[in-house]
Amino acid sequence: MSKHGGQRETQADAGLIIVLGDVARADALRLSLEASVRVTHHGHDVGAALRSDRDRAHAPAAIVVFGPIAELSTLVEHARAPILSLGAVPPAGPAGSGETDAAGLFFASAREPDHARLRQLILHALATAERATASEEQPLAAADAQRLARILAGAQRLGGLQQPWTVAAHTEALAIELSGATRAYCQFFDEHGGELWRPIDPETTTVSAVTGLVGCVARTGVGLRLARADAEPDFTPSVDDPDAPASSGARAGVSLLIEAVTSPREQVHAILSVVADAGRPPFDEADAAALGVLAEQLGAVLHRVALRERVEASLRARAEPSAPIREEAWRSHLTRGASGDLLRVGARWPGALLLVVLALSLAAAVLASVAEVSRYSTGPAVVQASARSELTALAGGTIREVLVAPGAEVHAGQIVAELHGEREATRREQLAARWEAALRRYLAEPDDLATRTELLELRAALVELEAQLRERVVRAPRAGRLVDLRVEPGQHVEAGEVIAAVVDSGPVDELVAFLPGTDAPRIGPGVELRFAVEGYPFNTVAARVVTVSDGALGAREAQRHLGPGAAELDLRGPVVVVRAELEQPNLAVDGVALPLRDGMLGRAELRTHSEPLALALLPWLRRFDRAPASQPAGHRVESLAATKTETPR
Question: Which UniProt keywords apply (predicted)?
Answer without folding.
Answer: Membrane, Transmembrane, Transmembrane helix
